[in-house]
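$ ./design --mode recover --in tokens.txt
reading tokens...
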């Protein structure tokens, strides 16, 4: 994690970030950057759900596997899941690269803290068109009207904590709705346990229609996931580059809904 991104996260998170830094989650030589698909020798029984085009059936099944109730309050809940769709973000936090990495734990208790080796995070309500007008035709919002990116990087890490606290936690699964995946195996998610072992690495399917939405998620038979490393596309979204579908040299990918299991404290 860079000094810039650490500076945007509340000082109370230091204990958490020190703990996970030892696992190399935000180091370019650590797990999640390479092509390794080794699965840790644990009884985790991963199940991958992926879809493009209509995501309705896949999301219904994925949510059911995580837990049918949507939890929105602070503190550990016995069952259920947590969801982020960005649409509650407003005002000065929109369309800037300074969206707080702990917002969906400290302000809205979803039990997720984000770090990146880039410059920060950005929630957009204009399909990133303020960065580059051509993006308006590239990035649609699945849950209208906002989308999300890591600023200055195509990679980020989701750290799970008991919602509203700094207690490291585990979840039984995590999935993301991506927008405008054009290149096969260009957008990936790597799942790690509390010891930093790679549990599963998956790729988002390429878009199949004009809407441009793709989903991939993994569930496990028990809470075992401590962090997830997300790599969105082949290049950073900076406003200076063009998506491959518009004649550019690299696939640019943004994100929408994050869906996870309920975070339970690491025992």
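writing sequence...
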């Amino acid at each position: 994690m860079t000094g810039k991104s650490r500076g945007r996260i509340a000082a109370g998170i230091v204990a958490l970030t020190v703990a996970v830094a030892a696992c190399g989650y935000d180091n370019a030589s650590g797990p999640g950057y390479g092509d390794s698909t080794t699965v840790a020798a644990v009884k985790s029984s991963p199940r991958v759900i992926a879809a493009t085009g209509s995501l309705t059936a896949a999301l219904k099944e994925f949510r059911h596997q995580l837990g049918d109730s949507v939890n929105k309050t602070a503190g550990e809940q016995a069952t259920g899941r947590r969801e982020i769709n960005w649409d509650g973000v407003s005002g000065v936090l929109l369309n800037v690269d300074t969206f707080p990495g702990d917002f969906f734990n400290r302000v809205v208790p979803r039990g997720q803290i984000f770090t990146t080796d880039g410059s920060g995070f950005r929630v957009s309500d204009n399909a990133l068109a303020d960065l580059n007008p051509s993006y308006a035709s590239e990035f649609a919002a699945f849950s209208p009207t906002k989308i999300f990116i890591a600023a200055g990087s195509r990679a980020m890490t989701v750290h799970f904590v008991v919602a509203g606290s700094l207690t490291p936690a585990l979840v039984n699964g995590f999935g993301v709705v991506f927008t405008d995946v054009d290149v096969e195996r260009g957008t990936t998610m790597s799942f790690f346990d509390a010891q930093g072992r790679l549990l599963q690495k998956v790729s988002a399917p390429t878009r199949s229609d004009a809407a441009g939405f793709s989903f991939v998620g993994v569930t496990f038979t028990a809470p075992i996931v401590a962090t997830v490393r997300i790599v969105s596309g082949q290049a950073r979204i900076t406003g200076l580059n063009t998506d491959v579908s518009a004649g550019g040299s690299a696939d640019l990918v943004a994100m929408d809904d994050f869906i996870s299991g309920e975070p339970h404290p690491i025992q």
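exit 0
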